[in-house]
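re: that complex we talked abt at group meeting.

here r the seqs, copy pasted straight from the sheet so there may be weird spacing, ignore it
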Amino acid sequence: MAGEQTIYDAVIVGAGVSGSFIAQALTQAGMQCLVLEAGKDFARSTYPRKEIDANSQLFWSGGIELNTDATIGLLRPKVVGGGSVVNQALADRFDDSAFDGWRDASGVSSLTRSEFEPWYDKAEREIEIRTVPEEYRNGNARVFKAGFDANGYRSALLRRAQGDCHFEDGNCCIECLAGCRIDSKQSMVVTTLKRARAAGLQVISEFEAHRVEHANGEVTVAGVGADKAAASYRGRILVLASGAIGNSRLLLQSGFASRLPALGHNFFTHPQYMNLAVYDEPINSHRGPLQSYKSDDPNFRRSGFKLENVFAPPVAIAMLIPGFGAAHLRHMRNITHLACIEVAVRDTHPGRIRVNPRGGVIVEKKLNDEDARRRDRGRDAIRNIFLATGAKEIIEGNLAIGLHLMGGCNMGVDPVRSVTSPEYRLHGYANIYAGDSSVFPNAPGINPALTIMANSLRAAEQILKDVRR
Amino acid sequence: MTSTILTPAQHSGLLRVGDVLIPGDRQFPAFSRSRCAEHVDRMLAYMNESDLQAIKILLGLFRYLPKLVLRGIMALTDQHRRFPDAIGGPLRMINIAIKGLVMTLYYSDLTEGVSIYELIHWDAKIVEREPLAVDHAPAAINHEPLVMEEP
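got the structure back, here u go
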């Protein structure tokens, strides 16, 4: 087996949001770190341009993975920079309800908004966050706002992790779902990871980790590299940062379930349903900023859902529109006349991640009656919004999209019911850490990206404390 | 046929089911006539082996089915919600797999002779200005080093 004799201070599996934030913190503190990432290392000039290539090359399994009953399509980024390359760059802090839910589920008393505020502040100093100026909000945003106002619903501007998108040039953020070609989106590639590399971080891309071995105070990560050759890397500590499915899969394949019985359990996705409406006049939802508004309605929050004004490229819209043939083509012909609002469910019913004998991921995840009620309440509100703004036809999306993949290595005080300790160490392992979305105790109902950043900074501080002890 | 992953029969099955899903009209080319299927390896090369094998079996079967039957199968998969999960689940999987393959090829604007993007008035763009002068990431906004103080 090929590999290196170097023993790194830290081996980090996953170059997404969490891995990059932790890598920056540890590297800047003087630790010799290696990041292993299964995806490719793109730059703004090399991101795929066609939707077919973006789906194939930036996500696991050629674009989409399905749960066991094919009701949820899971989009799992596979690229250096992770979700920050392909997401819609939303940057919200959690509210008290989210942290209350976390404390209730985990028994970890330190999961409070006041504890996290300084970490949010630190995270926000690492990226630029803006809202979309009124003059650039597009037709889809205007439908959203007008419909909210007509129904007395409360909305707010989305905070987006972006620099200057030069909307005056006619730039369309929907193009940047396959990686931002003007480096405005504050992905890890152009922020934390870049600074970590400048400080000495080593990144190996296109390396798929298959097994973790833990012995004699060291950790070895074995896998297959871009050349299809087996290789392994050693570290004094291991940081798991490949997300809910990635971390669970790696640990399950490595036999950790015998000591961590909750491994792979407590999996949440914020199932998102995109709903389309047809208007007589062009809406041009694809132009300009992709998203400007979100729901900010206390009734919605209490009811367990949120709404966002979103859109998607043609292939994704074609998949959302039911049917085929002439009827399907009629809608695609008028794609510029479509508005879209998404309902994201704060799911209460946990799923489970398993691994089959060939190493394939199996995701068991269903909506229970309460989750279905939350979805339906959101759809009712969307219908009200569309009808109040003159929609001629409403098309309800039936395939849930899972973009926020959380849990599987949930944090908690009980080693039987949780995987990760309040100190971000796997229960029973002094030098294996996780601080990404896999440690979420349950679904917060809020976009997780900024909290993953804050949580990862908090985890990095814990690692540095432990290392210096 | 330029695929190195599909057999000629499987490729033919793709064209047949593609034409059921996208028969085209006076303005839009039918799936097969658009020649977008020549790019199918750009998708298939990244699929899981188990997913790929299942798709190849379906496409091989589709090669020999009359179009009327193909249309009936796709219509049935579109009605997946009417069935209990034991039947509805596999129908959904077939629907997502086949529709995903066909729609991805057609609506990625790979067609020859005519641009699907132009036909649907899809004009999303990014204007790439001159490359940034700096090689390294600029200091973050109010960036402070993350080095922790010694305890």
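couple things i noticed - Residues 8-119 of chain B form one domain. Chain B touches chain A through 65 residues (CB under 8 Å).
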